[in-house]
Amino acid sequence: MKKIDGIHTFEDEGFLARITRTSFAVMLAAAAVCAVWGVCSLIPGSPAPAFELASPVHAPSKLGWLLALAVGVLVSLVAHEAVHAAVFKLFAPKGSRITFGANWRCGMLFACADGIVYTRRQYLAIVLAPTLVVTLALVAAGALVSWPLWTLVVVALHLSGCVGDWAYAAHIAADPAIAYCEDTEWGVQFYGVGEDGRDEDADGGEGAA
Hints:
Blueprint: E1 2-8, H1 13-41, H2 62-91, E2 99-103, E3 108-112, E4 117-119, H3 120-145, H4 148-160, H5 163-174, E5 180-183, E6 187-192
Antiparallel strand pairs: 1-6, 2-3, 4-5, 5-6
Helix pairs in contact: 1-4, 2-3, 2-4, 3-4, 3-5
């Protein structure tokens, strides 16, 4: 394998700026959906559900709704990293160790499979799995209790935290030369097929966020 490049998760200011912009875009999109939903629900005969905290059947108090929102966000954060870890473990050699950590300066949690090399497809599955699995689980939970606004807010907050994973995936997808990805305690190192003639050492941020 030959080194191509890597992502310096918490040290690359350009990377951090991109994921911050994407996170804001997700939240703005959710706010726009709420605005359109609110207007449509006021139109007589509109098929849009009433814009309220929860359905009348299962409606908690406003304080209960806010507490449920906080719990939903916390659970989604934990579930996100748990899904990363599960898929890391699925593709890793037997006995491999998966660790967890946090970078409080950037407000990020992460799972890390330090030093384990994955194929391109495996790493794409690892970084994108929480976006699919956790989002579907949140939608199912919201549908179960008939809380449409809760579902929208929690899903939007979860997706706004998936943007680092999307940036990893976009970087890999944009470079067909990337054949392998090594998860490291500082971020991710990308490799192509062939011999590495360079002596540079990689440095940078953290594992899958």
